[in-house]
Design goal:
Elements: E1 2-5, H1 8-25, H2 37-46, E2 49-55, E3 58-67, E4 77-84, H3 93-108, E5 112-118, H4 122-130, E6 134-145, E7 148-158
Parallel strand pairs: 4-5
Antiparallel strand pairs: 1-2, 2-3, 3-4, 5-7, 6-7
Helix pairs in contact: 1-2
Length: about 180
């Protein structure tokens, strides 16, 4: 498995295909329409970091970080997500993607990673717990999809325990 930066033109279609069944067949995502290649390319370009895992030259999964909230005081916090194609699950792609993503975020000065997991979702909770996330709360009946309400568990990972105060701003991505 190889983990690398995602490229909007090259990887958007594969990422959209991995995400499509998550949107159309599960409540894991609260989106109601799966984004196409063009929208996924826009999302890749807008992300703080977006990585893909390749297996034999095929995109097997992706993980990304986006700004947690718009207000300035939140600038050291990110929301993170990882999605792995069903044919490649339980083979370490999610952990590999997250480990690389978190290393990059730490290097740039980010301090907290947040993740929301629609319940129930034992696989996602297992991944997040294995990566060191702690549960911080549950939004009850927060999302309506497929004719019923769903809860979302929020988890948080301290990316730099014991680190000194952060720099004035997180560093831009390399090459930015």
């Amino acid at each position: 498995m190889r983990i690398r930066d995602a490229h909007p033109e090259r990887d958007a279609g594969a990422c959209a295909e991995i995400y499509r069944p998550v949107v159309t067949e599960t409540a894991t995502s609260f989106e109601e329409s799966a984004p196409g290649t063009e929208e996924m390319a826009r999302r890749i370009s807008a992300a703080i970091e977006w990585l893909v895992a390749e297996v034999d030259g095929t995109v097997a999964g992706y993980a990304y970080a986006s700004q947690h909230r718009a207000r300035a005081a939140y600038r050291w916090a990110v929301d993170v997500s990882a999605y792995v194609d069903s044919a490649h699950r339980r083979r370490g792609a999610g952990q590999g993607l997250y480990a690389t993503l978190f290393d990059r975020l730490r290097a740039r000065g980010y301090r907290e990673a947040c993740a929301g997991v629609t319940l129930p979702n034992d696989a996602s909770l297992g991944l997040h717990r294995a990566m060191g996330f702690e549960e911080v709360g549950v939004y009850r009946r927060i999302g309506w999809k497929f004719g019923r309400w769903h809860d979302v568990m929020w988890l948080q990972l301290d990316l730099a325990p014991g680190a000194p105060d952060p720099p004035a701003e997180p560093a831009p991505a390399s090459g930015a």
